[in-house]
Design a protein that fits this description.
The protein has 656 residues and is an alpha/beta fold. The protein contains 22 helices and 29 strands. The protein has three domains: 267 residues, Rossmann fold; 97 residues, no CATH class; 179 residues, ANL, C-terminal domain (GMP Synthetase, Chain A, domain 3), CATH 3.30.300.30. It has a five-stranded parallel β-sheet with strand order 4-3-5-6-7, with helices on both faces. A five-stranded mixed β-sheet has the order 12-13-14-15-16.
Length: 656
């Protein structure tokens, strides 16, 4: 197989990379998609043909230079090609979160003034049509899946295949214009506009240029030795910058194959079938997979449970050292090899991780215990630190320098410094152009010299040069006694337990910390079934005395761990409650990327926070919720509030 040549080589746009790949790797797989249980493939030559045909069809529909083309749907090759086709004609692709409600979509579509929308299926068509009266610039919508679309008014609706066929039919008359527009694309042309998750307000449109995406993709691919023979599974939201850089930026630079699962329900099976060599997942995915493993172990026979516990204990001791090529005793290596045959190998195969050469997690901090679990299996899981405004990469962990408590060293071409207030700043070729229609926020975030304020607090370790992120700068504060308050540090320790899905810690400016906890319904529900405990809802199970006892034991164990950290020992949890509902993006409590909106949660459940601090043993509350069909309702509950065991810190014990 011919490899892509190194260096920029004048390839200053994603469409230019596509044409190069179609030329030098024409018969290599560019995309695969599982549909009706069968994997379909596109070579790079076929991907160029379909992308070009769609671009010609978009020209025929009247797409102008600078138009915004919204892309909505699950990960599908045709939707990735749609983004590249939009850039081919000089337009700007804007992927949206497919699980967003119609009102959320309306904000983004109206803010960018999208004239054209390309969607996956009928569900997305209905959402756009629901809000079309609020979108004065909207003109045409193209749908990929024709099921259910027969009786719709097709005045402004177009089938994806029909647009492509129309483009092919008019190739002779439109190719000159397409070539002209492609030739106009430069480093500074906009490659994509991605909207931030909006943890503190309305999402902002982050404008990223070809320079941002391509130079970042090149540097990060070379950092990890990514090759055209690598395989990835594209399953994360297309609107998220991580998916864009992996599934378009790096994929088009290196020429590796992007595999799209059939659905969320078949993800685990599809992951095993593909066996990716390069894998990315946010902490929530790794947490969920670990929870499922622990659930299966609880249901396993005594012999299997003993084997798992015995060899995993050994893996935690020597696995990371073996992975990093360090010296390990002969007996430890023999025992680890036996564990690989009996436990680790079958487990990795079940998870779909047998072939992973490079794995990354990012998006938010991952719990050290969770991170170490995967590395102990021999999976080369690493952390990176990044954000949308950086085209993902700010720091990465080099092989052999991987730790759970740092996020590595500055990525190639990236400069990082720490401000006087402890905030992390960076500048790089990946630094975003601007926030669309928001010069004030652009100026607040990026200074005239190109330094970007991340909003995160951190510091460089002496000796190693590795960056440690403490927390979001806005979340890091002081306790009333002057001690540091860093909630994410404690929350990640809590989420290591399979029973705990989410945790929110409060305590800034207070004399003690308190916590809200969401149980993991799958894990706790499995436990309830094994113990013949009947329940009819999440709320009923969350309030069960035995569940509260189990959560209290976890909180007490976390406090013992937190007490060992001299800088953060004051963040131990004094009181907690288990929430009566799961935190939900539809209720505004989480972003679409599952990040906690701490301020909103604190305001929404102010009565619960107050009760935790005033010593109440229980509290009655009513909460508005959004159902799957968009209807609003209220749930009522009386919650039990519990005290946790707080232990003296190691520092205080030494002083005494």
């Amino acid at each position: 197989m011919t490899q892509p040549s190194s260096g920029a080589d004048g390839l200053q746009s994603v469409p230019a990379l596509l044409r190069r790949n179609a030329r030098v790797m024409s018969n290599s797989a560019a995309y695969r998609e599982k549909e009706f249980g069968i994997w379909q493939s596109w070579t790079w030559a076929e991907a160029l043909d379909e992308t070009q045909s769609l671009a010609l069809g978009l020209l025929d529909l009247g797409v102008n230079r600078g138009d915004f083309v919204a892309i909505i749907g699950r990960n599908r090759p045709n939707l990735y090609m749609s983004m590249v086709a939009a850039e081919m004609v000089g337009a700007i692709p804007v992927p949206l979160y497919q699980d967003a409600g119609a009102e959320e979509m309306a904000y983004v579509l109206a803010h960018c003034g999208a004239r054209f929308v390309i969607v996956g299926d009928q569900e997305q068509v209905d959402k756009v049509l629901e809000v079309q009266n609020d979108l004065p610039e909207f003109e045409h919508m193209i749908y990929l899946d024709p099921r259910g679309m027969r009786k719709y008014d097709h005045t402004r609706l177009h089938a994806f295949e029909a647009v492509m066929e129309n483009g092919r039919a008019k190739q002779s008359s439109l190719m000159g214009e397409l070539q002209k527009r492609e030739a106009e694309l430069t480093w500074d042309s906009t490659c994509v506009m991605l909207y931030t998750s909006g943890t503190t307000g309305k999402p902002k449109g982050v404008v990223l240029s070809n320079r941002n995406i391509i130079q970042t993709a090149q540097a990060s691919s070379e950092f990890d030795g990514l090759k055209a023979t690598d395989e990835v599974l594209a399953y994360l939201p297309m609107a998220w910058v991580g998916d864009f850089i992996f599934s378009i930026g790096q994929a088009y630079w290196t020429g590796f194959c992007v595999n799209c699962p059939e659905s969320q329900d078949t993800m685990a099976l599809d992951l095993r079938e593909i066996g990716p060599t390069y894998y990315f997942a946010p902490p929530r995915v790794f947490e969920t997979q670990l929870t499922n493993v622990m659930i299966r172990m609880e249901d396993a026979s005594k012999v299997k449970k003993w084997l798992f516990d015995t060899f995993m204990a050994h893996a935690r001791k020597v696995g990371p050292a073996i992975l990093d090529g360090e010296t390990v005793g002969l007996w430890d290596r023999v025992k680890y090899t036996l564990g690989e045959f009996l436990v680790f190998g079958p487990l990795k195969n079940t998870l779909g991780f047998s072939n992973i050469r490079v794995g990354y997690t990012a998006g938010e901090a991952i719990g050290p215990e969770i991170f170490d679990f995967y590395r102990s299996l021999g999976i080369n899981l690493k952390q990176l630190y990044g954000q949308t405004e950086a085209s993902v990469f700010i720091t990465q962990q080099p092989d052999g320098q991987v730790r759970s408590d740092t996020v590595g060293v500055p990525s190639p071409g990236v400069e990082v410094r720490i401000g006087d207030n402890g905030e992390v700043y960076y500048r790089s070729p990946g630094t975003f152009v601007e926030y669309y229609k928001n010069p004030e926020s652009t100026a607040d975030t990026k200074d005239p010299e190109g330094w970007v304020a991340t909003g995160d607090a951190g510091f460089f370790e002496e000796g190693t040069g590795h960056l440690r992120i403490i927390d979001r700068a806005k979340d890091v504060g002081k306790m009333s006694d002057g001690g540091m308050f860093a909630p994410k540090f404690v929350e990640n320790k809590l989420k290591f337990y399979p029973n705990i899905l989410e945790a929110v810690v409060f305590g800034a400016g207070r004399d003690k910390c308190v916590a809200f906890i969401n149980i993991d319904l799958s894990a706790v529900g499995n436990w309830a079934e094994r113990n013949n405990i009947a329940y009819s809802s999440y709320q009923e199970l969350a309030g069960h005395p035995k569940v509260l006892d189990a959560i209290q034991a976890h909180v007490n164990e976390v406090n013992q761990s937190v007490a060992q950290d001299p800088m953060l020992s004051g963040c131990q949890i004094h009181r907690f409650l288990v929430l009566h509902k799961e935190l939900d993006a539809d209720d505004g409590e989480l972003t679409r990327t599952r990040k906690v909106r701490r301020k909103i949660i604190g305001e929404k459940f102010d009565d619960l926070v107050t009760a935790l601090y005033d010593g109440s043993s229980s509290v009655y509350t009513e909460t508005e919720v959004t159902y799957e069909d968009g209807r609003k309702g209220k749930i009522k509950a009386t919650l039990e509030l519990r005290d946790a065991t707080v232990v003296p810190s190691a520092q205080k014990i030494a002083a005494e």
